[in-house]
Amino acid sequence: SAPGSAAAGRGRPFSLGVEGGFSVPRLGTYADSLxxxxxxxxxxxxxxxxxLLVFAGLRVAISTAGWSNTIAAPMQPVTCGAPLPNExxxxxxxxxxxxxxxxxxxxxxxxxxxxxxxVASLFADRVGGDVFEATxxxxxxxxxxxxxxxxxxxxxxxALRLVLSPLAFxxxxxVRGRG
Length: 179
Hints:
This protein is mostly beta strands. The protein has strands at residues 14-23, 26-27, 30-31, 35-49, 52-68, 87-104, 109-123, 143-157, 160-164, 168-172. The strands form two sheets. Strands 1, 4, 5, 6, 7, 8, 9 and 10 form an eight-stranded antiparallel sheet that branches.
């Protein structure tokens, strides 16, 4: 949700960003632990007047989620040929169109936020346990997704900003799971 390394300043209408961080995935009622996440952005500055900057762009995020079989669900589906493990992981890929604003607090510091809409999907080679019915051929499809984020950035050099995104929420429609 932020321009990481080559952020737009006055006279720089395009910016590219990369952020690394952590997410806390929630799969239905199952809450996961802290997981790594990576976000890449491309932004175009629509307006840069006085203290207010308005932008639009693209946001791509990749993260992981993990869960277990703490409910003793059956773990030997016919299609797999062998029992599934008790620990599972999946990768989530999200692509969104975003728009937002940033307010200059000083020549170097800005605070702002963005909103986005797009699609998200999970990718895994096998699932089961607490979250999904056991299978070796999961197919999740693309689901509608929404994003809301905040950011604080500091200009280190004319084409380099350090960005902190203290709050970022990505929500998407649930995939069919257990229950």
